[in-house]
Amino acid sequence: MSDFATFPWPVSPTVTAPDGSDVRVLPGLSGGGMAHFHLAAGRVSKAAH
């Protein structure tokens, strides 16, 4: 098993999800990855396909 990589928290979102959430891609391993999703106060998520 590999060790996790570390890096500073991304200041800007990596991408904006279809529902308007800010997405920051986080470190991962060969078996999978992680991301942090944030929906700002006052915003409403709607289903996207």
Main β-sheet, in a few words? 3 strands, antiparallel
Order of helices and strands: EEE
Shape: elongated
Number of strands: 3
Q: Into which percent range does the helicity of residues fall?
A: under 10%
Strand order of the largest sheet: 1-2-3
Strand content range: 25-35%
The pLDDT mean sits at: 83
Intertermini distance: 35 Å
| Residue windows where pLDDT falls under 50 for at least 5 positions | none
Number of self-contained structural domains: 1
Number of helices: 0
Structural class, judged by helices and strands? mainly beta
Describe the structure.
The protein is mainly beta and 49 residues long. It has one domain (1-40). Helix content is 0%, strand content 35%. The protein has no helices and three strands. Strands 1-2-3 form a three-stranded antiparallel beta sheet, with no helix packed on it.
Short description, anyone?
With about 50 residues, this protein is mainly beta.
Please supply descriptive tags for the structure shown above:
0% helix; 49 residues; 3 strands
Can you lay out the helices and strands and say which pair or pack?
Layout: E1 15-16, E2 22-29, E3 32-38
Antiparallel strand pairs: 1-2, 2-3
